[in-house]
Amino acid sequence: MLIGPALLGAGLGLISLKNPAIYIPLICVGGVLLILGFCIGICVSFSLGVLRLKRLRNAVDAESLKYSTKLPIPTKWHLNSYTTQRYIGRRSPTTITHYYIVIDIGNKVNSAVGSNRSKPDGNLNEPSSYIV
User: Fold this and answer.
1) Which of 14, 41, 70, 125 gets the highest tally of CB atoms within 10 A of its CB?
2) 34-42 — which CB contacts under 8 Å span 24+ positions?
3) Mean pLDDT of all residues in 5-26
4) Which residues span the membrane (predicted)?
5) Per-residue confidence at 125, pLDDT binned at 50, 70, 90?
6) Which pLDDT belongs to residue 107?
């Protein structure tokens, strides 16, 4: 990760020698390594975020399974999220993802398993609990 900026700096420092055969390859290799390092860093950061969210969803599912066997009323927990953007001054917007747990209680558990959770089925008599 530090080799790219070092080669780029060395190449820029050698410009005063007026010999392009020395500094042009150093600048090119340093620039390519620097860009490659940024791309790898972005990919690793994104992958870690996806893995962290997967572990969080698995933890919520495991807790849901654990408590659904202990309670007399059937319940199912699942993790939902929504995204907001904040604008502070002239800077670009800051995106914030909010996660919350939805607990389906009673007969709604059976309907939530086979249907799309983002579209309600119209039955408003079944309770749901939201933990934010």
Assistant:
1) 14
2) 34/4, 34/5, 34/8, 35/4, 36/4, 37/1, 37/4, 41/1
3) 81
4) 22-48
5) very low
6) 61
